[in-house]
Design a protein that fits this description.
single chain; about 260 residues; alpha+beta; D-Maltodextrin-Binding Protein, domain 2; 2 domains; 5-stranded mixed sheet; 6 helices; 13 strands; about 25% strand; globular
């Protein structure tokens, strides 16, 4: 089934605008005591986002509140809007200016539209399945680096061994770091955490990466799938297939 992606984009833009306004008005970043790392600001931003998305008829899957079904059916009754209202809320709570709202529409188990907005700078990344990726309306493309030894790699978590990168960075927002791979600011990205990343953390960034021409793969070498939104998966991303494959091998071992 095909969907009006322009309207999905508009809904996502309205959601990001509303959350951005809520964040800029001043939120409490006190610990909420819910899931690990949850803050009151996460919950308040989530409520704003869900109100907009369910108003369009989306079913919403959020880090903060799980699944929420729209009260009335609409043109997007078969679409799930996956949202992290503030990806990098620990950064926000510490005054570190690097956090984002991440949104991805999933239909029939496949991501079709994504929007990630830096809630500090306002930079907005967008992707549509088969339509490429943009930043602030302009097309983006990834790095051409093919060797880890020449690459700057973004990290979530840490490795017990050096993986051979030229340099590494750990910024604290997976959604934005994947967008940095999509635009070539980072050559690659690896999730080395113990818990692995959830769909709300990375799904928007994954589609933006893929539509820019970058490669994303899971720990076992498979391509990332969105059919099971509740599964956590370790991923690597690279501006090129060669870089992603080498990074995956160095991080998780050879495939047999």
């Amino acid at each position: 089934m095909s969907y009006d992606t322009l309207t999905i984009f508009q809904a996502f833009k309205e959601t990001a605008d509303a959350i951005g306004e809520k964040v800029s008005s001043g939120l409490s970043w006190a610990s909420r005591g819910g899931h690990k790392g949850q803050h009151q600001g996460d919950i308040d931003a989530d409520k704003v986002g869900i109100e907009v998305l369910t108003g369009y008829g989306f079913t919403v899957f959020s880090e903060e509140s799980g699944f929420t079904t729209a009260t009335s059916a609409g043109p997007f009754a078969g679409v799930i809007a996956v949202i992290d209202p503030v990806d990098g809320s620990t950064n926000a709570s510490k005054g570190i200016p690097f956090y984002a709202v991440s949104l991805c529409a999933v239909a029939d188990g496949k991501p079709i539209v994504a929007l990630v907005r830096n809630l500090v700078s306002g930079d907005t990344y967008f992707a549509e399945k088969g339509g490429g990726s943009t930043k602030n309306g302009l097309p983006i493309s990834p790095s051409s680096a093919t060797e880890v030894s020449r690459a700057v790699i973004g990290l979530n978590g840490y490795s017990d061994k050096h993986l051979g990168w030229a340099q590494c960075r750990s910024f604290g927002s997976a959604a934005l770091e994947l967008c940095m791979v999509a635009e070539g600011s980072l050559d690659g990205y690896a999730d080395l955490s113990k818990a692995a990343l959830a769909s709300w953390d990375i799904l928007g960034g994954v589609l933006i990466c893929l539509e820019s021409g970058a490669t994303v793969m899971c720990q076992d070498g498979s391509r990332y799938q969105a059919a099971d939104l509740e599964a956590r998966k370790k991923i690597v991303a690279g501006g090129t297939l060669e870089l992603a494959e080498e990074l995956r091998s160095k991080a998780f071992g050879k495939l047999y």
